[in-house]
Design brief:
- Keywords: Membrane, Transmembrane, Transmembrane helix.
- The chain has one domain.
- It contains 3 helices and no strands.
Length: about 60
């Protein structure tokens, strides 16, 4: 097998795997967004960064 062809197939396989992971992540996040309370571990991890930084009104300049 030619090395160039192998590199092309490897790049194609990695692209497909990345796209599949992205689609799964988007599907999980959208499924959790349909619920009113984000109870999943993925949402808790994503929202955990912003959960303890202050009230939303603090961002708008009102207290």
């Amino acid at each position: 097998m030619d090395i160039g062809l192998f590199v092309v197939f490897l790049a194609l396989a990695l692209s497909v795997a990345t796209l599949a992971l992205f689609v799964v992540a988007v599907a999980v996040i959208r499924a959790e967004d349909r619920r009113h309370t984000p109870t999943g571990a993925l949402s808790r991890r994503l929202l955990g960064t912003y959960a303890h930084r202050g009230r939303p009104t603090a961002y708008a300049g009102r207290r």
